[in-house]
Amino acid sequence: MNQEGKMKKKRLGALDICILIAVLLCVLGAAVRFVFKEDSVLAQNTPLDLYTVYFTVQDIRETSARYLYDGAGFYIEESGEYFGRLAGTPGTTPALKTYTDQNGRFVEVYNNTDDDRVARIDVEGAFIVSAVMDEDGYLLLNGNTYIAPNKEVKIRSKELLVNIRITSVVKAN
């Protein structure tokens, strides 16, 4: 009867201690893998260089051009990794569509409408990125992601998501 009025003390049992140790080991293991993985930015001992990445974007809405301004920062959509910043305001031209007529000839038609709802453009510009050249001659963006001419990359900013095609990469002066 005396024990009914008293509250039982809660103590850590053997199972609780095992669970706490397992959680601690998981967190510690993830931290160690992040710091010591071979291609980690933290594990790199070579400095990153600046490169100019020239790109094209084809057939996007004309209203999207307002989000492509000098200094705008972009990130890779897939990984969230920082891609780079725009160097200058990209040039735009009306979007070019290529059709094949009944005789098999190619016909090129420019989208040169004044209607904002259907106006499409092609964009050419450049990004300034941080990258390193590995021992095999491959360019690694931020030391992690392979980039090269003719590669398509989906990038985003706060306002815009766009697919770019890299046309060339040059070391910045």
Give an account of the 3D structure.
There is one protein chain. This protein is of the alpha+beta class and 173 residues long. 16% of the residues lie in helices and 42% in strands. It is built from two helices and eleven strands; from the N terminus they run ααβββββββββββ. The chain has helices at residues 2-5, 14-36, and strands spanning 49-61, 73-76, 82-86, 91-94, 96-100, 106-110, 120-133, 139-141, 145-147, 152-156, 161-171. The strands form two sheets. A six-stranded antiparallel beta barrel has the order 1-7-3-2-10-11. It is elongated and about 90 Å long. The chain starts with a helix and ends with a strand.
Which helices and strands appear, and what pairs or packs with what?
Elements: H1 2-5, H2 14-36, E1 49-61, E2 73-76, E3 82-86, E4 91-94, E5 96-100, E6 106-110, E7 120-133, E8 139-141, E9 145-147, E10 152-156, E11 161-171
Antiparallel strand pairs: 1-7, 1-11, 2-3, 2-10, 3-7, 4-7, 5-6, 7-8, 8-9, 10-11
Major sheet summary line: 6 strands, antiparallel, barrel
Strand content: 35-45%
Strands, total number = 11
Sequence of strands across the biggest β-sheet:
1-7-3-2-10-11
Tell me roughly what share of residues is in helical segments.
10-25%
